[in-house]
Structures are given as C-alpha cells and as structure tokens.
Amino acid sequence: ADRRTPRHPSPPPPPSHMPRTLYWGSGSAPAWRVQIALAEKGLVRVGGRGRVPPQAPADDACGSIVARWRGGGAREPRGRRRRVAPIRRHPTAFHLHPSPQPYESVLCSFAAGEHKQPAIMAVNPRGQVPTLVDDDGAVACESVAAVLYLDARYPESGTRLVPTAGPAMAVTLQRSLEVANLDAAFRGCVYPRMRNLPQSDDEAAAKLQALRDELARWEAHVAGGAWLAGEPFTAADAVFAPLLLATIRFGATLAPTYPHLAAYAARAAARPSVAGSWPPHWKEGAGPGFLAGV
User: Pairing state of beta strands 131-133 and 102-107?
Assistant: First the structure.
C-alpha cells in the first residue's frame, strides 16, 4: 500500500485583483472629496444613479445653483430619503483606468449605522467614511490622505492632482491641509444646531463670526485664478470644493460679501467630477438654513 501522505487539491490562487471599494455617505464632504478625486483620476460612470445639477450662468455668479439647493425646481418624493435600505452596491458602476477592474461603490446610511458594519471596521477601526480599499488591499481612510494617495498611485491616469512644479505643488499641499481650519469653523456653527446642543446666543454669534473670518481668508485664496493653485484643478480643489458647497447647502449666500468664492462655487458645481458625484439626498429639497446671513 502507498503510505505516502495523500495529496489534496491545492486551493485556487487568490485573484490578482480584489475589487476596489469606496464606502461613503451622502452629504459627507470628506467622502465627496474622494469621489471627486476618483473621477478626476479616470473613473468613468457607466451606470448607477445620480443627478447633474444645472450649470449656473456665468453672469449669475452662484445664484441659480443656490436657488436649486434651497429647494427651487422639482423635488423627488421625500419618502425615499426616510427608507432604510440594505447597503447599496454598484459593482459595475465605475472603471478606473488603466486597470479594467470594476470599482465598487458602497453607499452607507448613517441613520442605519452602516458605517459601523464589519467590512468597514475590519480595515478602519474608527468606523468612519470615507474608507477606500484599493485592489491590492491598500487602505486610505482620511479623506485628504485618500486624495493624495490616488494621485501618487496613479500619476499617469486622468488629472494630475498634485503639480510637479515647486510653487504650485507647495500651494496645493498647503491649501489641502489648510481646509481643516474652514472645516472646524463650519462644524462649530452647524453641529450644535444639528444635534440640539445648548449654546448661548453670544456663543452662536461668535462661531458665525469665526466662519465669516475664515471665509474671508479663502476669498483671498481664490481671487488670483480659476482654482486654488491657479489655472489647474488640483487636490486642493477636490478637498475644498465639497466643504464650500456644503456651506451653501446650509444657507450661506456668499455673494456679495465673497464674490470670488461665489464664482468659484459655480465653477466647481459645473465641473463633471463634482456634478457627477453630487450627494443623492441634496436633490430632495432645501437644506437647513443654519448659516443664513453668511
């Protein structure tokens, strides 16, 4: 009898590529940043859902998109927003060039706690979105890191988001990180009201003034060109634009106090990478007017 150890069939080799996956939430400025970067780096939408907002006329600065975000025009039934559905997966919605592998887009419901699901917690113990998992298992969870990672990983694909020239590179990296100051001012105004946290009128007024002061800095930043680093759209714009558009969503008018920011917002809203990844629930109606008067 043959006493040799029997040979069992070898397991199949692992696939050379695993699905690239982005876990994201609708209306999350950090998640929107990564969606914009993915589009700029060559993602082509061939299916799925979404709405492209109308482009604001050049002489309107930002008026028509502000009207749209505040409820102008037709609305979809609001009941759709209330429904808690299973995680939405769109495995064939995107392709990242030059690789032909599908890109999987997973929209997570914050209300249902889907951002705490095991698939996310396994790679991002903070349980936050965006969480980007690339086809080789590389993970980028912080939105700015994910934007910069995509440009470094795929330098020859799509838009070059970090210029190679010294001055433009420095401005791009500086503004990408400097956005954290605007984010802090925005959250300071919005979060207490969203969560019904106690604060005095003086505290609320001080926070609004801090936001106005921060917007004034960015007004100066965008005064010199079409985008933050001049003419090319860069990582800084992918990071900054979603937050600026969120301030309008929450009631800021920008013009006439910040005319350059208003014009910038109109340009950003019309850019295909931004329009194509517009937050789904924003089309359902007006946002809260917490930042009215800004």
Answer: unpaired
* Cα 77–Cα 26–Cα 254 angle in degrees, nearest 5: 90
The two tokens of residue 86 are: 């299973």
> Closest by alpha carbon to 271, among 52, 22, 24?
52
Alpha-carbon separation of residue 33 from 53, 188, 240 (angstroms):
17, 20, 8
Name every residue whose Cβ is closer than 8 Å to that of residue 164 and which is 6 or more positions away in sequence: none
Q: Are 103 and 96 in contact (CB under 8 A)?
A: yes
Cα–Cα distance for residue pair 148/146, rounded to 1 Å: 5
Query: Both tokens of residue 267?
Result: 């340009």
- What are the residue ranges in the chain where pLDDT is below 70? 1-18, 43-102
> What secondary structure does DSSP assign to 19-38, as a single string?
-EEEEE-TT-HHHHHHHHHH
Q: Write out the DSSP string of 162-227.
A: S-SSHHHHHHHHHHHHHHHHHHHHHHHHHHHHHTT----HHHHHHHHHHHHHHHHHHHHHTTTSSB
d(CA 132, CA 147): 10
Other beta carbons within 10 Å of 157: 17
**Cα-based distances in Å from 24 to 28, 53, 155, 280:** 8, 20, 24, 12
Q: How many CB atoms lie within 10 A of CB 235?
A: 28
The phi and psi torsions of 92 (rounded to 5 degrees) equal -115, 20
pLDDT in tens, 210-267: 999 999 999 999 998 999 999 999 999 999 999 999 999 999 999 999 999 999 999 9
Question: By three-state DSSP, how is residue 105 classified?
Answer: strand
Residue whose token pair is 């975000």: 69
